[in-house]
Write a structure and sequence with these properties.
By secondary structure, the protein is an alpha/beta fold. It has 15 helices and 22 strands. The chain is globular. It starts with 10 loop residues before the first strand and ends with a strand. Bound molecules: alpha-D-glucopyranose. Alpha-D-glucopyranose binds next to loops.
Length: 560
């Protein structure tokens, strides 16, 4: 296996709007991030992935870009961005930018031009079609609710928007559009960017005929996904992008790809194919989706959780490389979803972190995860900000659901769970802003915050620091192969990582109950070295089984 810096790195995702406000307008900004650079350096991360900071009307918090070459005024200026880049680089931290090129904002000059006339030179930068029998050109649904088409009076045609109607899809079949995107990527790379996280990148190629989705279309992607996820020309577009742009720089790329299994993922990340370095897969995070999709929450089983991880570990082991993440700006908080955010919050947050840093792949931390931030429960819809949540709420009301009932699923699934302000200390607004925050802080900030965590040697934050250092100093944790133990156990997740003669054993009790782990025959803990644990642990001696407390996690280096 080839060694690469990005395989050995730990990435930290910043959602700038919610990280730190320096100006008092209630919105996080670049100077706010700059003020926290030492915090990031002390945590020990290697790479920052910055969610979009480009000019945007902010309909989807920056994932609707109106100028790829400018900074959103609420966030600061290009000077601030340069200062941020330099501040990171000075501390040995690389900077990865979000690349949002499946769509732009409808306020992007290309779209304004495109919509003005059928013969506009920019018409084909987007996907326009006449209506069919006085209706939309096909039955595809938008990810954010309703039809994926919007009628435009000016030319009596519809444009495609897989996300909100303020996010028209770009037409990647158009070669001038592709040149523009390549040029823009190069422009940022020449300014010292160290890579891209590519937003919904496996949706850029649509089946050209744009056919109707059959009623049996995969229910998780009801909106016609079969015709635009992993579309017919995606591989071509990515290889072209690699050849023309990425191959000229030593950078990392990670594609956001819903609807991929390990086999499809290998088509993107197999090192011999020259497309992407890594992808974010969603099989794991869709584990608790019911037949109705995202908002239909069902209980999950540890055996399924282990099975998905094991399959990805195995199948990407030789050819590609995994990403490891349990949440991001679109997902509920990991500790609330896969751990416990009440009695065992500290233990379970540490257990999840142990998992994240001891699998093969590149770990991604989402801001606030390192202090165990939890989901939020606002009393009513007026406190929510996310376009997806608000659209869903409206639709559900129209279908006759009660507000209380809808809120229950928002508590479990809403993207605003991840977007409440970073909790820095116990002062008003959690030290995030001196003004009124754009979205309310989680009320638990008085006890869950960075300042408290820094002062407590047993905090989740300090545990993250230790894990990051541990991973950086043990090649086996990075490159070692993976072998699952006790696959049928519904409480214990245990596995071995091996590299050459070194073996590391990871034991995790994923339950609120006590559990027992029986050592496989050939393993012996008598002379093992405990690398990290989230409870005080005695030397195991000659015992053949390990008694685990609720959410206990241990990592041993075995002596061979
Ligand atoms: C991605 C982003 C999400 C955004 C969507 C549309 O899924 O992560 O935040 O809303 O793409 O750009």
């Amino acid at each position: 296996m080839q060694k690469k810096w990005w395989k050995e790195s730990v990435v930290y995702q910043i959602y700038p709007r919610s990280f730190k406000d320096s100006s008092g307008d209630g919105i996080g900004d670049l100077q706010g991030i700059i003020a926290k650079l030492d915090y990031l350096a002390e945590l020990g991360i290697d790479v920052v992935w910055l969610s979009p900071i480009y000019r945007s009307p902010n309909h989807d918090n920056g994932y609707d870009i109106s100028d790829y070459y400018e900074i959103m005024s609420e966030f600061g200026t290009m000077r601030d961005w340069e200062e941020l880049r330099d501040g990171l680089h000075k501390r040995g931290i690389r900077l990865v930018m979000d690349l949002v090129v499946n769509h732009t904002s409808d306020e992007h000059p290309w779209f304004i031009e495109s919509r003005s006339a059928v013969n506009s030179p920019y018409r084909d930068y987007y996907i326009w079609r006449p209506g069919k029998n006085g209706r939309e050109p096909n039955n595809w649904l938008s990810e954010f609710g309703g039809s994926a088409w919007e009628y435009d009076q000016t030319t009596d045609e519809y444009y495609l928007h897989i996300f909100s109607k303020k996010q028209p899809d770009l037409n990647w079949e158009d070669i001038s559009l592709r040149h523009e995107i390549h040029r823009m990527m190069q422009w940022w790379l020449d300014r010292g960017v160290d890579g891209f996280r590519m937003d919904v990148i496996n949706m850029i190629s649509k089946v050209p005929e744009l056919p109707d989705a059959p009623p049996t279309d995969n229910s998780r992607y009801q909106w016609g996904g079969a015709f635009f996820i992993n579309g017919p020309r995606i591989q071509y577009f990515l290889r072209e992008m690699h050849k023309k742009v990425l191959s000229k720089y030593d950078v990392m790329t990670v594609g956001e790809t819903r609807g991929v299994d390990p086999e499809k993922a290998n088509l993107y990340v197999d090192a011999g194919r020259h497309e992407l370095d890594m992808v974010f897969q969603f099989e794991l995070l869709e584990l608790d989706y019911g037949p109705g999709g995202k908002w239909d929450v069902i209980p999950w089983k540890l055996t399924d959780f282990k099975q998905i991880i094991t399959q990805w570990q195995r199948e990407l082991q030789e050819r590609g490389w995994n990403t490891l993440f349990l949440n991001n700006h679109d997902q509920p908080r990991a500790v609330s979803r896969f751990g416990s955010d009440t009695v065992y919050r500290t233990q379970s947050a540490k257990l999840l972190a142990t998992l994240l840093f001891t699998l093969q792949g590149t770990p991604f931390i989402f801001q606030g995860e390192e202090i165990g931030m939890t989901n939020v429960r606002f009393p009513d819809i007026s406190h929510y900000r996310d376009v997806e949540t608000l659209n869903m709420y409206r639709q559900a009301l129209n279908q006759g659901m009660q507000p209380g009932e809808i809120l229950q699923s928002i508590y479990l699934r809403g993207r605003d769970n991840a977007r409440t302000p970073m909790q820095w200390d116990d002062s008003p607004q959690a030290g995030f802003t001196s003004g009124i925050p754009w979205i309310d802080v989680n009320r638990n900030y008085t006890s869950i915050n960075v300042k408290q965590a820094q002062q407590d040697p047993g905090s989740i934050l300090n545990y993250y620091r230790n894990l990051i250092r541990l991973r950086q100093s043990h090649e086996t944790l990075v490159y070692g192969s993976f072998r699952l133990l006790v696959p049928e156990d519904e409480r214990v997740f245990a596995y071995l990582r091996s590299l050459e003669r070194e073996k590391v054993l990871v034991i995790l009790n994923f339950s609120e109950q006590e559990a027992r782990f029986d050592l496989p025959e050939k393993l012996d803990l008598a002379a093992a070295e405990l690398l990290i644990s989230n409870y005080p642990v005695d030397t195991p001696g000659k015992a053949r089984s390990v008694h685990l407390r609720p959410y206990e996690s241990r990592v041993y280096r075995l002596k061979s």
